[in-house]
UniProtKB/TrEMBL annotation:
Naturally occurring in which organism (per UniProt): Bosea vestrisii
Protein name: RNB domain-containing ribonuclease
Domain (RNB): residue spans on this chain: 47-356
InterPro entries the record matches: NA-bd_OB-fold (IPR012340), RNase_II/R (IPR001900), RNase_II_C_S1 (IPR040596), RNR_Ribonuclease (IPR050180)
SUPFAM superfamilies (UniProt xref): Nucleic acid-binding proteins
Amino acid sequence: MKTLIDSTNALIDGLAAIRRQYGVPEHFPPDVLAAAEAAARRVPTKHVDRTDLRFVTLDPATSTDLDQAFTIERSGADLLLHYAIADIAWFVDDGDAVDQEAWRRGTTLYLPDGKAGLYPPALAEGAASLLPAGPRPAVIFTTRIDADGNVRLDGAERAIVRNTAKLAYETVGEMDLPPDFAELARRIEAAENRRGAARVDPPEQEVAPAEGGGFQLLFRPRLLAENQNAALSLASNVAIANALLAARTGLFRVMPEPDKKAVMRLRQSARALGLDWRDEATLAEFEKTLDPADSSHAAFMLAVRRASGGASYVPYREGMVPWHAPMAATYAHATAPLRRLADRYVISAALAIANGQAVPATATAAFETLPAVMGRADARDGQIERAVVSLAEALMLRGHEGQSFEAVVTDTDDHALRIQLCDLPVIARVRGQGSKPGDRIRVRLTAADPLQHTISFELMGGAS
């Protein structure tokens, strides 16, 4: 859960209810913990020594499950990104207790009051995490980025690396980072723009006390270092996906463009928020104009994410080009193995391909079964995220029952209207008929229940 910060612990009771409702694991079984403790003592024996390279990590200050470390060097006009990825596969055997539990979980679940990890802390926050406490085993993927931002996987190896600095988004300075960090991010962004990519990275929402009592939802815009750091993962994942596709194997992350109905709803949301989306501009073009520091723009970015058809995983199929529309590229997940089960197998396959070896049979078999496992995990992630946002909205609106709000209709069905409040980042439904998308209406808040994470409105008058 990356879109809400609860620094005041205002959501604590509601979050406990959400954890119960969606079966968020509270702990690991004893046999899994014991197996993880034993695995954490394994000594790497298939890794070359790369501790002479100055790897650093860049994450939120409180992060302890560090998947990625990086360093950058020049190669003529090209940049070489050496991306060290936590080698969780070194510690986990196929079919052991830790592996079986990871297949049950699929992903790490993030909520504002804490996470439920994919792997036990002895691994995810200890022996496998790329912390600066000492050398760690990793898989280094080297991606070549040319002057135009085109990427190619140049090599991969298992290696021992040393994290020389645990950098934080909140405090990092330009001198802390490897040379050409900003240039690499610029090249990747330029290539995205040429491809017509339309990634949307909404700012985090924060629950904060409101003047006069109650609570409000505020936005914390993403920091420049966060956006630049995301370019490193994007470059590596695209390069790895292209290598897998060329080898006619792999597991890919795909996502369709929003359909016409979703785009129509988004246009009405933009109208509700007072945004100027020209009729001739596409959604991708309009997204380029958004400023996450502006609360109305930030609210629209959240609406875009909610309107998406959803991403999924697909294995390689002959004659099919897997496509991620927001990335405008073939794309794979390989850079967060401590948090996503699928990445472990993508890494295994990419490591083999880069070294001219056969893809392990375990990875090939996993590519066929992982889409269903990851689909269930993603669905639960999405349900929890929506529930948490609804909880925050209910908390913000509690005490305002009976108050009227202006809204714009974004969609309709036989019995209800989908609405976007004009002055708050709230999307809701209200029973009623006779309105059409784009109509401006007034609604009255009838209930706001944080424990049930629900809000209810009633229609007050006709459309305008």
